[in-house]
Write a structure and sequence with these properties.
With about 220 residues, the protein is mainly beta. It contains three helices and 15 strands. Strands 4, 5, 9, 10, 11, 12, 13, 14 and 15 form a nine-stranded mixed beta sheet that branches. A six-stranded mixed beta sheet has the order 1-2-3-8-7-6, with no helix packed on it. About 25% of the residues are buried. The N terminus is likely disordered.
């Protein structure tokens, strides 16, 4: 989490740990943090994602985007109909995205280490996975962030509220930025990437297109 998220930790927290039973905020490292109304997941709860890129054409990528569809229906809350969950988004000093539970008003902060927040949040075709990506495209990224792009993957089970959204995999890179992402199939994503920095409109950027299976290291 960035320093800008420090306001979250001002709340009293209970740390869930397999080995530490003390109710102290100092024990939050590597564990799931739960307050009365907010859930956060630390990086250590995600496995490491390995991307094995195969370069594809722009037409391939656009075709995958057109063909993408889910087996579930999304409701007016921008999430799976009948799941009891809905999406909340807001920007003040930073942009944040939450999944909220209708029955309890509890929220889960979806991960993004960038002030601009999440770039894309997309359910897999089966709706059993959720991919989230964020990116920064300025040449000065090193002055503000450790990485240029990040991807998080969650497992999704419906019918049990926020307990059904669990961390799966994470990926960070300093090599490129993400402009767009879509699912190819249940185990494959396609990405629109660029190595340069955004100094004007998209016409000044040279995009390259790749697909990759989602594998754990």
């Amino acid at each position: 989490m960035t320093n800008s998220n420090s306001k979250v930790y001002a709340q009293a927290a209970t740390v869930i740990s397999d080995t530490l039973k003390k109710n102290s905020i100092n024990d939050k490292i590597g564990r799931k943090i739960v307050t009365d109304s907010l859930i956060l997941y630390n990086d250590s709860l995600y496995g490491n994602l390995k991307l094995n890129f195969t370069e594809i054409s722009k037409n391939n990528f656009q075709s995958y985007k057109r063909k993408y569809k889910t087996s579930c229906v999304l409701d007016s809350g921008q999430f799976i109909s009948g799941s009891g969950l809905y999406v909340i988004q807001g920007c003040e000093e930073i942009c944040e995205t939450y999944l909220a539970e209708r029955s309890t008003n509890r929220k889960m902060l979806m991960p993004s280490n960038y002030d601009a927040g999440i770039l894309k949040m997309l359910l897999s075709p089966s709706c059993h996975q959720l991919v989230i990506c964020s990116s920064y495209d300025g040449s000065d990224y090193g002055a503000y962030y450790e990485y240029r792009a990040e991807i998080f993957l969650f497992n999704v089970s419906t019918g049990i509220g926020l307990k059904g959204i669990t961390p799966s995999l994470k990926y960070y890179t300093k090599d490129w930025s993400i402009n767009d992402l879509t699912w190819v199939d249940e185990n494959t994503i396609a990405l629109e990437l660029y190595n340069g920095t955004r100094t004007g409109n998209d016409e000044n950027l040279k995009f390259r297109y790749f697909k990759s299976n989602l594998n754990a290291k």
